[in-house]
């Protein structure tokens, strides 16, 4: 059985849109895309009057090398969100198929499914075990109409990880049944190896990465999907003709230079050290009921009254993420790890709340 047998038949048979840039074939006099022949004012050699390459070869090859896969297994798009949406539309028939998620986790999995009118089955993380993944329950939740199973590692918003052996076990168990999507948006902050190393053995595996977090390109919106070439081709069929602006591509190429990657690893090390320091410091505060261990660039904290803490810190200009609405995270706030002075400001603000909350 091919993994494409799990996809919607109408998507498999869809003739993709052929953009003018795809048909250029290295031409020099470009008169096929109705572009303005003059660059805009202040272009500075970026050629923004021309449509960008749908899948810039240099960018794709650099990312493939970083993640240890081939260019044929690599697709770039507008953040991981775009791929979550594309995967849902490619594999889930509206009103018939569904996905399995493990809350509390990233909310876009369920949002994209519900937009597509796909069923959402929830297998909660084990709160009593630091929100670890319940693999047996996850697999039992998979039915004949399940098409996508999501595993977020490190998980957002709790920060826990799923080991590579566990990922491989799940992928094997889901063979010919469903596509396993491993979201590694925070992978650079984790000690666990990437599931990308399993792609050669599992054609039903998709790994999502991003340049928004460790590479500091949240504003450029560069996401990466790593998968079997058949899945990459399928997603390209329904992808927008020009997903990435030239300015975003240029920014991505700069942060993927050897010098920039070295700087990224240095900064990731600093953030991880700050994260571990803050975990101990937060746990010692009377106002904090619990801090969960994290292998991402954030910590999840529980308070007696998260709303009061949130409002009090906001009044001081400190913005945290209120995640109290997530299942199992009542009265919890998520704190991103910032620069040392920012972290000290948060720590001081929480310390001052001892007599208030």
TrEMBL record:
GO terms for biological process: L-histidine biosynthetic process. CDD domains: AAT_like (cd00609). Its cofactor is pyridoxal 5'-phosphate. Keywords: Amino-acid biosynthesis, Aminotransferase, Histidine biosynthesis, Pyridoxal phosphate, Transferase. It comes from the Bacteria. It holds the Pfam family Aminotran_1_2. It is an enzyme of class 2 (transferase). The modification N6-(pyridoxal phosphate)lysine is found at residue 213. GO terms for molecular function: histidinol-phosphate transaminase activity; pyridoxal phosphate binding. Residues 43-348 form the Aminotransferase class I/classII large domain. Pathway: Amino-acid biosynthesis; L-histidine biosynthesis; L-histidine from 5-phospho-alpha-D-ribose 1-diphosphate: step 7/9. SUPFAM superfamilies: PLP-dependent transferases. It catalyses: L-histidinol phosphate + 2-oxoglutarate = 3-(imidazol-4-yl)-2-oxopropyl phosphate + L-glutamate. Its EC number is 2.6.1.9. Homodimer. PANTHER family: HISTIDINOL-PHOSPHATE AMINOTRANSFERASE, HISTIDINOL-PHOSPHATE AMINOTRANSFERASE-RELATED. NCBIfam families: hisC. Belongs to the class-II pyridoxal-phosphate-dependent aminotransferase family. Histidinol-phosphate aminotransferase subfamily. This is Histidinol-phosphate aminotransferase. It comes from Pseudolysobacter antarcticus.
């Amino acid at each position: 059985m091919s993994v494409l047998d799990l996809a919607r038949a109408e998507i498999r048979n869809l003739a993709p849109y052929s953009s003018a840039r795809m048909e250029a074939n290295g031409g020099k006099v470009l008169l096929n895309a109705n572009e303005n022949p003059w660059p805009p004012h202040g272009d500075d050699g970026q050629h923004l009057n021309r449509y960008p390459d749908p899948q810039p070869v240099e960018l794709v090859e650099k990312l493939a090398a970083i993640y240890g896969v081939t260019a044929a297994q690599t697709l770039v798009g507008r953040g991981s969100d775009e791929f979550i949406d594309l995967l849902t539309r490619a594999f889930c028939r509206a009103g018939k198929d569904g996905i399995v998620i493990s809350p509390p986790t990233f909310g876009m999995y369920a949002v994209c499914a519900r937009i597509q009118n796909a069923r959402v089955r929830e297998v909660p993380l084990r709160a009593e075990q630091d929100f670890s993944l319940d693999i047996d329950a996850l697999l039992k939740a998979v039915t004949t109409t399940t098409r996508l199973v999501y595993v977020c590692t490190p998980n957002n918003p709790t920060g826990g990880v799923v080991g590579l052996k566990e990922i491989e076990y799940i992928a094997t168990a889901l063979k010919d049944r469903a596509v396993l999507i491993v979201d590694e948006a925070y992978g650079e902050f984790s000690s666990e190896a990437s599931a990308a190393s399993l792609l050669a053995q599992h054609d039903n595996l998709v790994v999502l990465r991003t340049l928004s977090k460790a590479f500091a390109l949240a504003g450029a919106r560069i996401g990466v999907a790593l998968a079997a070439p058949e899945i990459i081709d399928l997603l390209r069929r329904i992808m927008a003709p020009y997903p990435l602006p030239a300015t975003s591509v240029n920014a991505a190429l700069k942060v993927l230079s050897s010098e920039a990657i070295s700087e990224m690893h240095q900064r990731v090390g600093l953030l991880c050290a700050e994260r571990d320091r803050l975990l101990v410091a937060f746990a010692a505060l009377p106002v904090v009921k619990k801090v969960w261990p994290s292998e991402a660039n954030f910590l999840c904290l529980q308070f007696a009254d998260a709303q009061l803490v949130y409002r009090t810190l906001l009044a001081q200009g400190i913005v945290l993420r209120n995640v109290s609405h997530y299942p199992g995270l009542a009265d919890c706030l998520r704190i991103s790890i910032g620069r040392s002075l920012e972290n000290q400001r948060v720590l001081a603000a929480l310390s001052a709340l001892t007599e208030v909350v």
